Amino acid sequence: MKKFLKMIAACALLPMILIGCNQSTTSSIKLAEVTRSLFYAPQYVALEKGYFEEEGLDVELQTTWGGDKTMTALLSDGADIALVGSETSIYVYAQNSKDPVINFAQLTQTDGTFLVAKEPKPDFKWEDLKDSTFLGQRKGGMPQMVGEFVLKKHGIDPKNDLELQQNIDFANIPGAFVSGDAEYVQLFEPTASTFEKEGKGHIVASFGEESGHVPYTVFMTKQSYLDKNEEEVQKFTRAVYKAQKWVEETSASEIAEVIHPYFEDTDLELLAASIDRYKSQGSFATDPILDKEEWQNLKAIMDEAGELPADIPYEELVNTSIAEDIMKE
């Protein structure tokens, strides 16, 4: 009987022992994404398919709605890692930050917006934008800077050749386009395809195809966090790379099914069509490496928009060693 009671006691203690073990081997990471977008499909794949869990990471995702709010969360330790445009790390560095923000894993490598017209434009030409009302994105953000870069590439001065509206918050831009007098708007998917399906707009061009490769959205963290938690950042990057490879090899319809919990209000078929649009133009990075050419392209776009505060060297704010090591495994 005593032996039996000892066995019962041991069994009762086992769950507590296992919990203790799990607590010691699982690391928590607070991840802030700049917005909720299927443009970030590989991130949601990593979450839904358990790639972070396989690495012993408990990733808590929060949506911070805007580059400034995302960077504030990161700098104030409200987030450990941020998914946001690389331009934000340049802005922070230019303010003489003693704890620079380091880009360590790229997620998207093109602009993710599309030019949507209120009326059908079967024979659209970029010059059609002249003398029109264009509802753009927030000044200083990557969507707006890329938008202006592409317009200038086609001989359009965004300040003089059209009426450029930039006074609408990111989350309110779709509604403002529907209810306002703007003839064109710059939208992400799946909003662009949703508008087209509902007859509220018509996709006429892709800013991603026009602007080339840029480090559009990148996972970044403070140098101090990286110094103290390099192993966790390695595990995080490994999970992201697994997801990137899976997305590259998987059909848009299957990807849509996996990430649908993050876009419950979007029809699966439309979600798949939007993902396919991004895949076909190479928007999803196929590995975590942010290369020097992309960094130079980013700075050229920022400079053209008058938003480059300083010529920050690639080596100062980009760490590729972790991603390179992961890819060699």
UniProtKB/TrEMBL annotation:
Residues making up the signal peptide according to the UniProt record: 1-20
Q: Where is this protein primarily located?
A: periplasm
User: Gene3D superfamilies, from UniProt?
Assistant: Periplasmic binding protein-like II
Task: Give UniProt keywords alphabetically.
Answer: Signal
Please state where this protein is localized. Answer: Periplasm
- In terms of superkingdom, the source organism counts as Bacteria
| Similarity field | Belongs to the bacterial solute-binding protein SsuA/TauA family.
Q: What is this protein called?
A: ABC transporter substrate-binding protein
